[in-house]
Design brief:
This protein is mostly helical.
Length: about 425
């Protein structure tokens, strides 16, 4: 009897080791794949991208579900909520022949259920190393004229923001990656290389000029600092900070002009980073509509769609159909993907509530440093979902790393040995 139980334990441990190594390969694959898309052009065609992005993700998700069924007797709380969410959305989607939503929600849920149930381990060393390598790779791409950014400010070929820098050819992705590295190192006080990585990632984030990343990093690091100092000790106070941070960010989106009331708002550096010389109250810059105005308008269109069918949403929709008659804003070139939260509510209505509840409001049994990082990443993910929703895919490296942090999978080398 003992030998049978011991054999089963060894088999499960070996299975987890194999799963963990395959997952690291998956992470590495999607990390490298991000270098094929720049703010200038995309190397991979839409038809081909379907296979190289989605098929590996779907295959790994199905493998993960099979591994869970074979090795684990019961599902944890977050996977249970996500399973219920998937079943209900699938029934509604099939009933109205909305197979696009069925596939999208299914792919996302399979990946999330696997990650929150198995919780693969990933070292902060690994994340730091690929971040530093990213700076080198993007510099090579800059020399080859594929990327318009490098790590040196002032030499970017951006038409009106030459001071911007990035670790990726896409500045938004680069900034969010830098934000992840910054918050992970800031949260782990015991980590040996914490300070130099905070400096490097902070530098890359600051001069990226991506406001979502800057604000999320500021809120996340403030949370971590308050936890480390003992100011936020109870579960209630920590959750209150999460709610307050999200409310503040939503408020800042719709009332960005109020930032000018800050005592240092007339500072040239502040205006360059926050407003990027767009003009504080004007809506146009070189014929383009200001980013803040477009995001407010996108959310308004999504909310109007949500009101049409608040309980189950309107299903898969073309944003161009929602935005008809939007005047100059309708010609901004947006697809509406920037605001993931409001888009999901428009698509599936209040059925989206369990999805967000599972990601943001269910507490996991984590160690102190992992818990601090988890909430800091929750703040960052919510900020990103409100303004850069296009990265919220189970095959996106930024989204995957944020989910790993929320699930408590990112650890210091010491914790990797003991966990």
């Amino acid at each position: 009897m003992w030998s049978e139980i011991n054999y089963k334990k060894i088999s499960v441990e070996n299975g987890f080791t194999i799963f963990n190594k395959l997952f690291l390969l998956c992470i590495s694959y999607y990390w490298l794949l991000r270098f094929t898309t720049s703010d200038l052009r995309q190397v991979i065609s839409e038809d081909l991208s379907y296979y190289i992005y989605i098929v590996p993700s779907a295959a790994f998700g199905l493998f993960g579900i099979l591994y869970v069924i074979m090795t684990q007797s019961k599902f944890l709380k977050i996977p249970k909520i996500l399973i219920l969410f998937t079943i209900v959305v699938s029934i509604v989607s099939i009933a109205r022949n909305d197979f696009n939503t069925l596939f999208t929600v299914g792919l996302m849920s399979i990946g999330l259920i696997t990650l929150f149930q198995v919780r693969p381990k990933i070292s902060i060393n690994f994340i730091n190393i690929i971040f530093l390598i990213s700076i080198f790779i993007n510099t090579i791409l800059f020399i080859m004229d594929f990327s318009i950014y490098t790590f040196i400010p002032g030499i970017s070929s951006h038409p009106y923001l030459p001071w911007r820098i990035s670790v990726y050819p896409s500045v938004a992705q680069g900034a969010l990656f830098a934000m992840i590295v910054f918050l992970a190192n800031f949260s782990f006080r015991s980590y040996r290389y914490r300070i130099p990585m905070i400096v490097v990632s902070g530098y890359m984030l600051l001069l990226s000029g991506v406001r979502t990343g800057l604000i999320a990093a500021a809120a996340g690091s403030l949370y971590a600092a308050l936890c480390h100092s003992g100011a936020l000790q109870t579960r209630l106070s920590r959750m209150a900070f999460l709610y307050a941070a999200v409310v503040f960010f939503v408020f800042s989106i719709f009332f960005s002009d109020l930032l000018m009331l800050l005592p240092f708002a007339d500072n040239a550096v502040f205006q360059a980073l926050i407003f990027r010389d767009e003009g504080i109250k004007g809506f146009e810059l070189d014929g383009q509509v200001s980013t803040a105005a477009v995001r407010e308008w996108i959310m308004a269109q999504h909310f109007s769609a949500f009101l049409q069918s608040p309980f189950i949403g309107v299903g898969t929709f073309e944003f161009a159909n929602l935005s008809a008659g939007g005047g100059i804003l309708a010609n901004s070139g947006t697809t509406g993907s920037e605001a993931f939260v409001t888009a999901l509510f428009a698509r599936i209505g209040l059925l989206a509530v369990p999805f967000f509840a599972a990601l943001f409001f269910v507490r996991l049994p984590l160690g102190e440093e992992e818990e601090v990082l988890s909430t800091a990443f929750k703040i960052s993910l919510m900020f990103g979902m409100l303004t850069y929703g296009s990265f919220v895919n189970i095959y996106d490296i930024v989204f995957l790393l944020l989910i790993l942090g929320i699930a408590g999978c990112i650890k210091t080398p010491e914790r990797m040995k003991s966990a």
